[in-house]
Amino acid sequence: MTFSTDSIENGFPSAFNYDTQLIDAVNSTVNVFKSLSVDDQLAVLWFAYTEMGRSITPAATGAARLQLAEGLLNQIKQMSHSEQLQAMRDLTAKNNTQISRSYGILSANTKLAFWYELSELMVKGFVVPMPFNYQLSRDGSQVLKAVKELDFGQQITVLRKIVTDMGVDSLA
Ligand code: 45D
Q1: Could you write out the DSSP letters of every residue in 118-151?
Q2: Does residue 97 form part of some domain?
Q3: Quick check: 167 and 91 in contact, CB under 8 A?
Q4: pLDDT category of residue 2 using cuts at 50, 70 and 90
Q5: How far is the CA of 99 from the centre of ligand 1 (A)?
Q6: How many CA atoms lie within 13 Å of 166's alpha carbon, on the beta-carbon side?
Q7: Fewer beta carbons under 10 A from the terminal one: N or C of the chain?
Q8: Ligand 1 site, residue 118, Cβ cutoff 6 A
Q9: Ligand 1: centre distance to CA 119 (Å)
Q10: Distance between CA 64 and CA 146 in Å, rounded?
């Protein structure tokens, strides 16, 4: 039996289009996110966390993963608020700092767990809070809206792509 592009297209046209649309929704959300200012990127992540918080269980993020990020999290906990903000801006902007390099060697899910834990530390008062009156840009609000409209699995994919790209990979 031979496979021609014809038989592929005739066989699974709707499945193909469906997947393509999902991939487009994820990729375009990620691309617009990356075009935001560093502060807007941090703000969108924060708002995404506050919206998703209930669906992410501590069990899902895995205590084992967090152990790998524990040193980094402790280091950040001990910083002043302005240093904490700078560290997060450096990760987001991919500035080459010791923190960004330590972050760079974590796995994708550990990076997600790291950001999740940072938000929890914000809630508990160990990490600099969001200014209550922070104004997201128009594009920032659009990205947040787009993320909210995705299902949970797609949201994870978007977040994983975003956090994987942060920090600095010294071996790259
Ligand atoms: O002054 O392992 C501004 C699963 C303005 C399972 C600011 C999972 C200026 C497997 C910059 C705004 C896949 C479920 C200040 C894991 C200014 C697994 C401050 C998933 C102060 C891990 C802004 C986990 C700040 C998931 C401080 C889905 C912003 C995790 C801080 C999701 C923002 C985690 C932070 C998310 C956002 C974390 C810390 C969405 C963190 C978001």
Answers
A1: HHHHHHTTSS-PPPTT----HHHHHHHHHHHHS-
A2: yes
A3: yes
A4: very low
A5: 16
A6: 32
A7: N
A8: yes
A9: 5
A10: 31
Domain CATH number, residue 135: 1.10.2090.10
Q: Evaluate: CB of 29 within 6 angstroms of ligand 1.
A: no
Alpha carbon of 159 to those of 22, 33, 96: distances in Å?
Answer: 15, 10, 22
* The two three-digit tokens of residue 144, written as one number: 């947040």
Residue with tokens 């972050």: 103
Residue 171 covered by a domain: no
**What's the number of domains the chain is made of?**
1
Q: Domain of 88?
A: 5-164
Quick one: what percent of the chain has pLDDT higher than 70?
A: 83
169 domain residue, yes or no: no
Report the C-alpha gap between 101 and 167 in whole angstroms: 6
Confirm whether 170 is domain-assigned.
no
Atom of ligand 1 nearest to the CA of 156: 28
pLDDT category of residue 171 using cuts at 50, 70 and 90? confident
DSSP string, 69-124: HHHHHHHHHTS-HHHHHHHHHHHHHT---HHHHHHHTS-HHHHHHHHHHHHHHHHT
Query: Tens of pLDDT along 82-92?
Result: 999 999 999 99
